[in-house]
Write a structure and sequence with these properties.
The complex is a heterodimer of chains A (about 325) and B (about 350). In chain A, α1 packs across α2. Chain A folds into two domains: about 100 residues, no CATH class; about 190 residues, no CATH class. In chain A, the strands form three sheets. In chain A, strands 7, 8, 9, 10, 11, 15, 16 and 17 form an eight-stranded mixed sheet that branches. A six-stranded mixed sheet of chain A has the order 3-1-2-4-5-6. Chain A has eleven helices and 17 strands. With about 325 residues, chain A is α+β, with helices and mostly antiparallel strands. With about 350 residues, chain B is mainly alpha-helical. Chain B has one domain. In chain B, about 60% of the residues lie in helices and about 5% in strands. In chain B, the strands form two sheets. Chain B has a five-stranded mixed sheet with strand order 1-2-5-4-3. Classes of the chains: A alpha+beta (about 325), B mainly alpha (about 350). The interface between A and B is medium-sized, with 26 and 23 residues.
């Protein structure tokens, strides 16, 4: 089922099988569209291509008939780094200040490269370091620092009926007042990896197909990438207005609780989470003020993913008149 | 002026005539945008499209990217303006001239070349006898030295034309405080006193060089002091200024005499020649004739043609070994112009040794 892109009105994406994808990735690259961004990706290592195809094969791909946002090349910088002691170098057409990783961790380099592309070039949307999900007209933004469990929570919700926008790049369109989905692979770290594997197994016996290898010894510990749910990929151009802001706080020893917070506090937490607040300037200030004005806000404290999902659903059910977006 | 060729280049075509954007294929756009980003002119494309009223005719993806580029240049302009405000505040109380250079001057004067431009640092110039005073003021106001390596600090102070760059930790914009426009060790030594004398005051209290001196400073920066590789943006700003200042015939009458007075005729020759060749700049025939005597000999002229048109933008001319030669040739040339041979040897040796020490990754 092809995803129709609002950016490429009359151009249909290609349905490549794995072999064709592999061939294109190893040569000139292939343009993959994830939400509002389209990046031409080429990869010179077989192990990384295999992982990339496993995680992203259901996304729309284009031949060379569309304008890209950027390109990304992953390769060894010379013969030694390609074949003898392979090291994955990322090129993004701007400054290249990445520290190359061993090719066995090439998937990590690739994901970091895609993060870098968004973080340093995206100014057309206000960006939040936040987990964002949506369901039936509810747009939920969960701004948080790394380690608060927002990735796990967003991913968890996305396998319980919510649409995953992103586990760390919330995007807001200033012009339309909507959240823009950007459903990249979810980056799971350390203890959240077994939690999510168990979580997905409860809905699909073939759960291992959703996960990449586990990459140990990265700067952030062990990392594993998880494919967004099929519906999140299918709906990746479906936008929702934000109307709930929840600040998630993970505490293994706490009693699950919903705590009220002031709108002022929620506003400042949203500002702090915004990576391009100062770069978008006045429009970002106005947008964030409007989001908080219109949103129901709270903090949740949770010891487990189950608790967190329950708290979120409870807060939403108690406060938001659902289906508001479907009239 | 001998003939040279710049192959049909999409980015240059788009800059020369933004209407071209309407007919670009997806592949053309991808090539054009990559090159524009690498050379720092993407904001310029967005503002050109806006000015021509053709943004709505472009592919949706391009419109979306242009929105981002516009935010980036608008933010850069805002930050530079605020940094100027902070600088003015720190240097308050002196009646001597503080000159703003390059991007800050273009922005404040509202020049065409400031549209869609991004600047990462703020360049100012004060008379040499005020530079220690200015440094003290900045440090007292919270700016910090960015360069902490002793050799680099010493090198800036003894041989360069500016203080080691200062950065305010809250704002992350580097300010370069100059006392002249070329390193003191340069083979060419323009008389900065003359440039200071003809500087003019703007509303904000800062001074800028006269129009001709502004161009000559850009020219010197590109063809004497800076790196030519990938610097098509600098040539473009010269092209813009020739167009803007050149509407007044007096500008053309005074240009070469002023370059002569400051000893910058060779650099001006290159600027006029490459601007004309690449952007087809509207330069009076008489000016092109009058600058010809300042050309280098034919061999150097041809080598420079090859090197400059080969590397001033990433997709231009030279490939492989030729590109390597052109890049390194220009690197050596810029250092050659910047300092005497013995000092150059010493400097390059220290830099070379440092590449293998622990200091850098």
């Amino acid at each position: 089922m092809p995803v129709t892109s609002p950016y490429y009105n009359n151009k249909t994406n290609q349905s490549y099988n794995d072999i064709e994808l592999n061939n294109r990735l190893s040569s000139d690259g292939v343009a993959i569209e994830i939400g509002p961004f389209c990046v031409n990706v080429s990869i010179k290592f077989q192990n990384v291509r295999d992982e990339f195809i496993k995680i992203y094969r259901d996304f729309p791909f284009y031949a060379d008939n569309v304008v890209w946002d950027n390109y990304l090349k992953l390769y060894g910088q010379n013969f030694y780094r390609q074949y003898i002691k392979p090291q994955a170098f990322v090129e993004l057409g701007m400054s290249n200040e990445f520290i190359p990783l061993p090719a066995s961790m090439g998937m990590v380099s690739l994901e970091m490269g895609l993060n870098w592309h968004v973080a340093y070039t995206c100014r057309q949307y206000v960006m939040f370091h936040a987990g964002v999900v949506a369901k039936d007209g509810v747009g939920l933004v969960m701004p948080a620092m790394s380690g608060s469990g927002k990735s796990t929570l967003a991913a968890g919700l996305s396998y319980r009926g919510w649409q995953l926008h992103s586990d760390e790049f919330g995007l807001f369109d200033v012009g339309t007042g909507e959240l823009v989905p950007y459903p990249r692979a979810v980056s799971l770290k350390n203890q959240s990896i077994p939690v999510m594997k168990k979580w997905v197994r409860e809905v699909d016996d073939n759960y291992m197909d959703y996960f990449s290898d586990e990459y140990q010894g990265t700067p952030k510990g062990t990392i594993c990438y998880m494919r967004p749910s099929a519906d999140s990929i299918k709906d990746m151009h479906k936008r929702t207005k934000p109307n709930v802001v929840i600040l998630p706080v993970y505490d293994a020893n706490a009693e699950p609780a919903i705590k009220p917070i002031s709108k002022t506090m929620a506003f400042f937490r949203l500002v702090m989470s915004s990576a391009n607040y100062g770069d978008v300037g006045k429009d970002a200030f106005l947008s964030l003020s409007k989001i908080i004005d219109d949103a129901h806000v709270c903090e949740i404290i949770y010891p487990t993913l189950e608790d967190a999902v329950d708290l979120v659903e409870k807060f939403v059910a108690d406060n938001v008149n659902q289906n508001v977006g479907d009239e | 002026m001998n003939k040279m060729t710049v192959r049909n280049n999409i980015l240059v075509n788009v800059i020369k005539n933004p209407e071209v954007m309407k007919g670009l294929s997806a592949q053309d756009w991808n090539r054009c945008l990559i090159e524009a980003k690498l050379t720092g002119v993407s904001g310029r494309l967005a503002s050109d499209a806006e000015n021509m009223g053709i943004t709505a005719d472009l592919p949706l993806k391009v419109q979306n990217l242009f929105k981002s580029f516009s935010y980036i240049s608008a933010t850069s302009t805002r930050k530079i303006k605020w940094e100027m405000n902070r600088v003015k505040r720190s240097l308050h109380g002196s009646n001597e001239k503080t000159i703003i250079l390059k991007g800050a001057a273009y922005i404040t004067k509202g020049l065409r070349c400031a549209e869609g431009r991004t600047s990462v640092d703020l360049d100012i110039l004060v008379a040499k006898n005020r530079i220690d005073w200015a440094e003290e003021k900045f440090l007292a106001a919270g700016w910090k030295h960015q360069v902490v390596n002793d050799y680099d600090q010493k090198f800036y102070r003894e041989y360069s034309h500016e203080l080691p760059p200062l950065v305010h930790p809250d704002r992350h914009i580097s300010i370069d405080v100059h006392h002249t426009i070329l390193p003191v060790t340069s083979r060419v030594k323009p008389d900065i006193k003359k440039m200071l004398e003809s500087a003019v005051q703007l509303d904000g209290g800062f001074y800028v060089f006269s129009d001709i001196d502004i161009i000559l400073h850009s020219v010197v920066h590109l063809f004497h002091d800076g790196e030519i590789r990938g610097s098509i943006r600098n040539l473009l700003e010269q092209h813009d200024m020739y167009g803007e200042f050149g509407e007044n015939q007096q500008f053309w009458d005074d240009l070469i005499p002023r370059a002569k007075e400051l000893g910058l005729t060779r650099a001006l020759y290159y600027s006029l020649k490459f601007s004309k060749a690449i952007f087809d700049t509207n330069i009076p025939e008489q000016v092109l004739i009058d600058i010809e005597p300042y050309a280098p000999n034919i061999i150097i002229d041809n080598i420079m043609n090859y090197m400059v048109t080969g590397v001033i933008s990433p997709s231009f001319g030279a490939k492989g070994l030729g590109r390597w030669f052109a890049q390194n040739g220009l690197y050596v040339r810029s250092h050659w112009l910047r300092m005497p041979t013995l000092l150059l040897a010493k400097h390059l040796t220290i830099k070379f040794i440092r590449r293998f020490s622990d200091e850098q990754h």
